[in-house]
Amino acid sequence: DQQVKQNSPSLSVQEGRISILNCDYTNSMFDYFLWYKKYPAEGPTFLISISSIKDKNEDGRFTVFLNKSAKHLSLHIVPSQPGDSAVYFCAASDQGTYKYIFGTGTRLKVLA
Amino acid sequence: GAGVSQSPSNKVTEKGKDVELRCDPISGHTALYWYRQSLGQGLEFLIYFQGNSAPDKSGLPSDRFSAERTGGSVSTLTIQRTQQEDSAVYLCASSLDGIQYFGAGTRLSVL
After folding, report:
1. Which of A44, B83, B87, B106 has a Cα-to-Cα distance from B12 of 20 to 30 A?
2. Residues of A in contact with B31 (CB under 8 A)
3. Is A45 within 8 Å of A61 (Cβ atoms)?
């Protein structure tokens, strides 16, 4: 039973355009969400997070949107750059716990 | 650097052998996690250490898997009598404030 789902295994976007990566969750107790980026042969690195008290968090070219009623979050990257090509994982937790549930990842390819 | 260090980076073993995977967390981080990533899958939680508290072992897939964390720092994940389905990338992460910092992982291949 996958509590955190990333239904698109891959995405290709032209350089300079917007990349939108989606993530759905089923557990209504989740109240803290994170995005990680992973390059080949490296561990995931933290990108951006959002708490359920917000519906948007922005950091430079990266914005995460949270729709609690739909149990959906998305990561927007604008403008996309070739160096953004990586696998992106979303993760969710109940802040009362320490356990993070990760999605299966979306491989983003930004075409020059 | 002062990141999370894992060794070995790659391990090839024969079915039935025992393996030990090592994780050196970031100094001062009280929390340490082990995850497993099988091909095409997300990160599967294995075990969590927090300070001197008893670890949460609820993610360990079988009693062939065990982990220790000595002195609140270095951790070792041991897999006994390895099976082919144990082949995966094993990732360690440490945390102080909820953000997890990952090592590069150990790629385990069981032949």
Report:
1. A44
2. 98
3. no
| Contact residues, chain B, for A44 at CB < 8 Å | 43, 91, 102
Q: Which of B31, B56, B102 sits opposite A43 (nearest CB)?
A: B102
Integer Cα distance of B35 and B12 in angstroms:
19
- Calculate ∠ Cα B28-B63-B49, nearest 5°: 15
B38-66 per-position pLDDT tens digit: 987 889 999 999 988 889 999 999 999 99
Check if the beta carbon of residue A19 is closer than 8 Å to that of residue A106: no
Query: What b/e sequence results for B28-58 when a residue is b if at least 16 CB atoms lie within 10 Å of its CB, and e otherwise?
Result: ebebbbbbbbeeeebbbbbbbbbeeeebbee
What is the phi-psi region of residue B40: left when phi exceeds 0, alpha when psi lies from -120 to 50, beta otherwise?
left
Cα A55 from chain centre: 14
A35-60 confidence digits (pLDDT tens): 999 998 899 999 999 999 999 999 99
